[in-house]
Amino acid sequence: xxxxxxxxxxxxxxxxxxxxxxxxxxxxxxxxxxxxxxxxxxxxxxxxxxxxxxxxxxxxxxxxxxxxxxxxxxxxxxxxxxxxxxxxxxxxxxxxxxxxxxxxxxxxxxxxxxxxxxxxxxxxxxxxxxxxxxxxxxxxxxxxxxxxxxxxxxxxxxxxxxxxxxxxxxxxxxxxxxxxxxxxxxxxxxxxxxxxxxxxxxxxxxxxxxxxxxxxxxxxxxxxxxxxxxxxxxxxxxxxxxxxxxxxxxxxxxxxxxxxxxxxxxxxxxxxxxxxxxxxxxxxxxxxxxxxxxxxxxxxxxxxxxxxxxxxxxxxxxxxxxxxxxxxxxxxxxxxxxxxxxxxxxxxxxxxxxxxxxxxxxxxxxxxxxxxxxxxxxxxxxxxxxxxxxxxxxxxxxxxxxxxxxxxxxxxxxxxxxxxxxxxxxxxxxxxxxxxxxxxxxxxxxxxxxxxxxxxxxxxxxxxxxxxxxxxxxxxxxxxxxxxxxxxxxxxxxxxxxxxxxxxxxxxxxxxxxxxxxxxxxxxxxxxxxxxxxxxxxxxxxxxxxxxxxxxxxxxxxxxxxxxxxxxxxxxxxxxxxxxxxxxxxxxxxxxxxxxxxxxxxxxxxxxxxxxxxx
Length: 615
Ligand code: F6R
Prior knowledge:
Blueprint: E1 3-8, H1 13-24, E2 31-37, E3 42-48, H2 51-61, E4 68-74, E5 89-90, E6 96-104, H3 107-116, H4 126-141, H5 145-153, E7 158-166, E8 172-178, E9 183-187, E10 190-194, E11 206-209, E12 214-219, E13 225-228, E14 240-241, H6 257-263, H7 265-273, E15 277-278, E16 283-284, H8 287-290, H9 293-297, E17 301-306, H10 308-325, E18 329-333, H11 334-337, E19 348-354, H12 360-371, E20 375-380, H13 386-390, E21 393-396, H14 409-428, H15 434-455, H16 458-468, E22 473-478, H17 483-497, E23 500-505, E24 522-527, H18 533-545, E25 549-555, H19 560-564, E26 567-571, H20 580-597
Parallel strand pairs: 17-18, 17-19, 19-20, 20-21, 22-23, 22-24, 24-25, 25-26
Antiparallel strand pairs: 1-4, 1-10, 2-3, 2-4, 5-6, 6-7, 7-8, 8-12, 9-10, 9-11, 11-14, 12-13, 15-16
Helix pairs in contact: 3-4, 4-5, 7-14, 7-15, 10-14, 10-17, 15-20, 16-20, 17-20
The protein binds fructose -6-phosphate (F6R).
């Protein structure tokens, strides 16, 4: 969490930093700050609130000139979100300035030590401790900033991506990383630093991502000096050409990123299977699976680890792998898995799912699984992310940047890729004949146009949202493949509209949640015509007899549920295992409209951040 941006070069730093922070605001928006150095003075401005608040404040209170700048948008860990705790932070001498994303776990003992040596602290942050530790090392050891950073970082425990400069060195910025992401954009005699590449994409396509335990000294007119933090050994920079383009990270005429990303799903799903699915030949090509086929085929079981929405995609995958490929699957919250001493062997395949590729708990689960000898396969959206680098092999979803904090296209593209993997294994195991595979792949190719149709429910969904926007509770029910969709629908509603919502397997309703049902309770039931349709219809009857309000997601042409429900939203017919790709669409739209009508910040819901890089 937290977004960091830095610039050093020949341009004015301020506009780059502010625009960059706006692009990184998905990473945290409790407070924001900027420091611009003009070679003589540091102009620093920070405030509780959003980057827009910072912009207003800084433009009225500081001089904005300067070719070196750093900025930060914060998701609070240590210290409440207020002006003082906002970054950047000065060292006591006022000579060093730092921004930090992450947590220094042993900050308290370091702070006590520094206080004994006369240091004074103004904020409650671990970051202010770090910058003063660097200062103390610099003075005590009589070394330059880069060396001081290296020595100091060897004394801290935790996670960080830092950017720091020294007023005595106006042509240099020092960066370092462990656990939190950090990208460096390389232009003509200029460097850009950011938590992801979006802040500098219009300036340069050349970038490198720092690896964990690496630091770099970025000095104008010089090559990047890349080092390992532990032993100062030299590392050769791996500079890549970025594939990102500017349109992908802008709203493109939509009011919100979330809405744009909901509407992008037909294209995103297509991009996920493009070049991988050859329906006419009954073939699925995916290098990460092809190269490791034996590992998948000989696996005793697949363990899926993920968090949040990605965990829901994992639950859908459990149904898909077991049903289609007959491989046993366990789905684990990464945060539980990593701490509960799980039994893992080298006969297990672990699939880690993550949109951002940076989720700390998922990363830790991967490391644990690898230590125990499992083969770990990653499903990520963000190219070059930590998880994509940490896993033994993997497949990108190619959904394009997802900026709305509530995950939408990540979910459907994760399901798409996991379906492809399951189908491939089904074919290789001989569970699926070529003709059955052909039939499935052809239907998968129809999904983007069916999602397009499902999106046409938008007007109706908006009308339904108007009716239920003031609800205080909401129940989501689904069975089989659509039980995880019910969970996901409930998560979407609670995270962006702050209405309490629960997802349940429909049959579980009678074991407790049914007590909640009265004439005020909206119950959203996924009742598509495949699978356990009759059973779901019975569940709907049970809700109706208790006067619950029923909003049903049904297959086009359904008449039975129409008789019972207050509202029905139709989605096109498809194979049962592919229904989550369609039924989830109206649920995303429903939460979007309700949140909007309640005046909530759809793209940046309170207390959340897109990339959860703390435990
Ligand atoms: C919900 C949401 C979160 C993420 C979770 C995992 O809309 O976005 O629940 O799904 O934080 O994030 P990734 O997929 O980046 O590991």
